[in-house]
Amino acid sequence: MKASIEVSDNVIVRCFKGDVYLEDILESWKEIFNRFDNLGSYKGILTDFLDATMHHQQDNLHTLVNYLNENKIHMMDMKIAIVIDTPQVSNTMMIGQQVKRLQIRPFSTRKAAIDWISI
User: Fold this and answer.
1) What is the dihedral of CA 55, 58, 92, 81, to 10 degrees?
2) In which order are the strands placed within the sheet that holds 103-107?
3) Domain that holds residue 60
4) What is the mean pLDDT of the chain?
5) Which residues does 27 contact at the CB level (< 8 Å), separation at least 6?
6) How far apart are CA 55 and CA 52, in angstroms?
């Protein structure tokens, strides 16, 4: 997998590096669901794509939205911060609009994402 997952200050931090495809993102969500029994006990999830090159098509956005909708019970009312370059920000915003009850926001820095999660 192209993602590392760790916990820092009660925030689950997932970092992607290199070429990243939809399958990599879905696999990392599965790992989070398997590793962390009670996601509600964490402040939130920070996903960092700054060192990644995204290779997924617009059609894949629907697959990701469907997957998150099917699994949102695990993440109800959690803050999910996405640290990403500007070309992918619109996709992050669309996911946030289509997956109700999840608070998903794009950020350009990890510090801003952690500050928002910690509020």
Assistant:
1) -40
2) 3-8, 11-20, 44-54, 79-83, 103-107
3) 3-118
4) 84
5) 1, 3
6) 9
DSSP state of 33: H
Question: What's the pLDDT tens digit per position in 52-80?
Answer: 988 876 677 778 878 888 888 778 778 99
User: Across residues 5-19, what is the average pLDDT?
Assistant: 95
In Å, what is the CA distance from 4 to each residue of 7, 48, 54, 93?
10, 10, 16, 23
The predicted model scores a pTM of 0.83
Whether residue 50 contacts residue 80, with contact meaning beta carbons closer than 8 Å, is answered with: no
Q: Which residues pair with 11 in a beta bridge?
A: 8, 44
- Split into its structural domains, the chain has a count of 1
CATH of the domain at 97: 3.30.750.24
